[in-house]
Amino acid sequence: MIDDPLTLGPKLSSKLIGRAQGFYALASQEEVGLLMAMNFAFTEGKYNGSTITVLGRNAVFTKVREMPVIGGSGLFRFATGYVQG
């Protein structure tokens, strides 16, 4: 389970704008592959109360990873696309 701060930038002093909440589980016998379900729940500004939902496989040691955006709420209702890390 995760419930991590969502901030404007990577520094600890960055402004808190929401929470990254969800879970991940090991989902591969051959490599470090995770099943991840995560909501980015915004609590500040015009996005307050809105969410973006990501669900997918995270191959941890792959240089570039993509996971699908499967929806959202509030200002992100019917969101589609992908996150890349």
Automatic annotation (TrEMBL):
| GO BP field | phenylpropanoid biosynthetic process
Subcellular localization is given as:
Secreted, Extracellular space, Apoplast
GO CC terms of this entry: apoplast
Q: Mind telling me which Gene3D superfamilies this protein's record contains? A: Allene oxide cyclase-like (2.40.480.10)
Renumbered to this chain, the signal peptide range is none
Question: Pfam families, alphabetically?
Answer: Dirigent
- Its primary localisation, in coarse terms, equals secreted
Biological role stated in the UniProt entry? Dirigent proteins impart stereoselectivity on the phenoxy radical-coupling reaction, yielding optically active lignans from two molecules of coniferyl alcohol in the biosynthesis of lignans, flavonolignans, and alkaloids and thus plays a central role in plant secondary metabolism.
Q: Which family does it belong to?
A: Belongs to the plant dirigent protein family.
Q: Please describe the quaternary structure of this protein.
A: Homodimer.
Question: Per its record, how is this protein called by name?
Answer: Dirigent protein
Q: From which source organism is this entry?
A: Morella rubra
